[in-house]
Write a structure and sequence with these properties.
With 104 residues, the protein is an alpha+beta fold. The protein folds into two domains: 43 residues; 53 residues, SH3 type barrels. It contains two helices and five strands; from the N terminus they run αβββββα.
Length: 104
């Protein structure tokens, strides 16, 4: 009888441990990624060079906070799209100087 009671407590502990590990490896990284994307989306401003999730390169010429859209100027014209559709900002990459290598 004592053996059955001891293994029942061990199963509950393993279940709690399994949920803890699942939370650490699945839920926390997803929450961090969503927070980072929200911060990126809210930091977009006029003049930023961006790439959309569809691969369109352009420059933001207008940001509308009321309906969460922006207008992007491309080589083909102007495109209005959701701010969440922007995947990457190129302005920071172009303004920071590349590190020079010392070849001696």
């Amino acid at each position: 009888m004592q053996i059955l009671q001891a293994t029942g407590g061990g199963n509950f502990t393993m279940l709690i441990l399994m949920f803890g590990v699942m939370f650490l490896f699945l839920i926390l990284p997803q929450q961090r990624r969503a927070k980072r994307e929200r911060k990126f989306k809210n930091a977009l401003k006029k003049g930023d060079l961006v790439v959309t999730k569809g691969g369109i390169h352009g420059k933001i010429i207008e940001v509308n906070d009321s309906n969460d859209t922006c207008v992007i100027e491309t080589m083909a014209g102007k495109v209005k799209m959701e701010r969440s559709f922007i995947s990457n900002e190129l302005s920071k990459h172009r303004t920071t100087p590349a590190k020079k290598q010392n070849n001696k």
